[in-house]
Design goal:
Blueprint (H helix, E strand, L loop, with lengths): L35 H5 L9 E2 L13 H9 L15 H10 E2 L4 E3 L6 E2 L3 H8 L16 H9 L19 H4 L4 H16 L6 E2 L3 H8 L1
Parallel strand pairs: 1-5
Antiparallel strand pairs: 2-3, 3-4
Length: about 210
């Protein structure tokens, strides 16, 4: 296995133009030089990716009735009934290597052609709403002060990224967010990173990836 170094420089260009094992016209896939396949063609094997999946922890939540009402009011309650399966690491890894950021699709060298998870998949698999206000993040200058203002105290152990608290300041407003769109966009962004040779982790929804590809 050849590890990746930032100083590695490769010039995998085809004598007739384009890339060996890839398109002859480099304008078709302009991000190909960062893609895993670009290095694999020259014998440089990508290290195994790490999958950051936390969906299995949903079953460990011990919520009060009041808390359950608040989760349902934000239209995220459907996540609690998802039937979680074991992560298929080879499938996720293979699909990340097939991802093409130029087209936001998985490329298969068979009759299937190209495939991609859609908003319909998000709605059907994750039961998240796909219409509503965009989920946008605003910068927070003082996290400690913000957490204390929202929770009344600063927990000794943080169980989530504190910047996400801002989306639940108002339960009524939270119910109007297009959570499904944010989930799909986050998956696309994660695939865009993990398909490159340098990136060694995947943090999108494996539940969505595995179910959509079955």
């Amino acid at each position: 296995m050849v590890s990746y170094g930032v100083s590695m420089i490769m010039d995998c260009t085809h004598p007739d133009g384009g890339y060996p094992g890839g398109p002859r016209d480099p304008n078709l896939l302009q991000l190909h030089k960062d893609h895993s396949s670009y290095y694999n063609w020259e014998g440089h094997e990508k290290m195994e990716i790490r999958i950051d999946e936390r969906a299995h922890q949903l079953g460990d939540w011990n919520l009060t009735k009041k808390q359950i009402l608040l989760v349902n009011a934000s239209r995220l309650g459907g996540l609690s009934i998802i039937q979680l399966s074991q992560i298929d690491h080879p499938l996720i890894t293979d699909n990340t290597n097939r991802w093409r950021s130029e087209t936001n699709s998985l490329s298969f060298n068979i009759q299937i052609g190209e495939m991609t998870p859609t908003l319909f998949d998000v709605y059907e698999i994750l039961t998240l709403v796909v219409d509503g206000a965009p989920v946008t993040y605003r910068p927070i200058n003082d996290y400690r002060e913000y957490i204390e203002s929202q929770l009344g105290e600063v927990p000794l152990e943080a169980t989530m990224l504190t910047r996400y608290l801002q989306f639940f300041e108002d339960t009524e407003q939270a119910s109007g967010y297009a959570w499904g769109v944010a989930s799909l966009a986050y998956l696309y962004r994660s695939l865009e990173k993990s398909c490159t040779f340098k990136c060694r982790h995947f943090s999108g929804s494996t539940t969505l990836m595995q179910s959509a590809m079955e």
